[in-house]
Design brief:
globular, 19 strands, 2 domains, alpha/beta, Spore Coat Polysaccharide Biosynthesis Protein SpsA, Chain A
């Protein structure tokens, strides 16, 4: 490995989420990260493009579900390493697989595949600013500057400053109530937890050994028994890694926040203001989308007449919304969703009802 290559950051893109809060657009066979939600390409393709600067980043490693291999390859042609999870086990085990596949001294940038970052260069500048800390054994998380008192996100409280734009992380806090969120935003010491991390591979594995040894053990066993197949699809000449299924399924299903970030020492936060959104609901999609003069978002065949503040999206039939306000109306070839925009988190209730009635064909 050349010195130039070893000095670059290895992006780890996590592409295992289902995105059920965006049903009926997002389905098991075409989850949120495979959708074009902002008009610029799929969320996965945009994420890969964000870390494609050759002087800063090495080739990415993507971790995805086993049934998503061809979809990932189509969105990210020429991928060098694709790790295919035999079962979902949340982020801590998924990152462990990637850390074991990377060079032990490599600095990893772990990022979800389904987030929007409008200022890609500002994001890369933030990564550069935090890089020295990651090389020195810190785990750096990137806090996203709150744009509103959001109750649907976790927050990170800043501690003492470590350098310009980098702070010790005082604590991770769960989703607050409205009054608490307002106080945190006004106070200026809390940032949204964006789920993006910068750290050495060995630092992360050491932290797992200390704080979540069952995850570390399962990941090592799964990678030791992994099958590696060459991949030539979509112009690629890389490898698809299939971790040993029984070993990986033995892992506890835990997030990196719970398994490591809330327990480890030397945790830092680097606040960013880069136009971030997880687009985790139709309300969030409405916030980031282009709107007409009445605050409507219309994508696909649709009409908004004497209507205000609506999100109207159709993949086929014409949707005409007349005299309504603040609704989400989504039409696909086989389903129609109508929900008050500010209650769009309740979409998961429809998903649960469909599961309970055996309508998996709609999921």
């Amino acid at each position: 490995m050349s010195a130039r290559h070893s000095s670059r950051i290895t992006p780890i893109i996590l592409s295992g989420g289902a995105g059920t809060r965006l049903w009926p657009l997002s389905r098991a066979g075409r989850p949120k990260q495979m959708l074009d939600l902002t008009g610029g390409g799929s969320m996965l393709a945009l994420t890969a493009k964000r870390v494609a600067e050759g002087d800063l980043f090495a080739a990415p490693i993507i971790v995805a579900g086993a049934d998503q291999a061809e979809a990932v390859a189509a969105e990210v042609p020429g991928l060098a390493q694709l790790i295919l999870e035999p079962a979902p086990r949340n982020t801590a085990p998924a990152i462990a697989l990637a850390a074991l596949a990377a060079d032990p001294e490599a600095v990893l940038l772990v990022l979800p595949s389904d987030q929007l970052i409008r200022d890609a260069e500002g994001f890369r500048d933030g990564v550069r600013r935090a890089l020295a800390f990651a090389r020195e054994g810190w785990i750096v998380t990137f806090g996203m500057k709150p744009e509103r008192p959001e109750t649907g996100y976790g927050y990170i409280e800043r501690g003492e400053p470590l350098a310009e734009g980098v702070f010790a992380a005082a604590r991770f806090v769960e989703k607050p109530d409205a009054a608490t969120a307002e106080a945190w935003v006004a106070g200026g010491r809390h940032d949204w937890n964006g789920g993006i991390f910068l750290m050495r591979s060995g630092t992360y594995l050491d932290a797992l050994d200390a704080h979540a040894p069952a995850i570390a053990k399962a990941a090592r066993a799964a990678m030791a028994g992994a099958r590696r197949d060459p991949s030539t699809s979509s112009g690629g000449t890389g490898v698809r890694i299939h971790p040993a299924a029984a070993a990986f399924k033995a892992s506890p299903a835990q997030s990196i926040d719970y398994a490591v970030m809330e327990k480890a020492e030397r945790i830092a936060v680097a606040p960013l203001s880069v136009g971030w959104s997880d687009i985790g609901s139709f309300e969030a999609l409405h916030i980031v989308a282009d709107k007409d003069g009445e605050g409507n978002v219309v994508v696909g065949p649709g009409l908004a007449i004497d209507a205000r503040g609506n999100l109207i999206r159709s993949d086929g039939p014409l949707v005409a919304a007349i005299g309504v306000e603040d609704l989400v109306i989504v039409a696909t070839h086989d389903a129609v969703l109508v929900v008050p925009r500010r209650q769009s988190q309740r979409v998961r209730e429809a998903v649960a009802a469909l599961k309970a009635t055996g309508r998996d064909d709609l999921l």
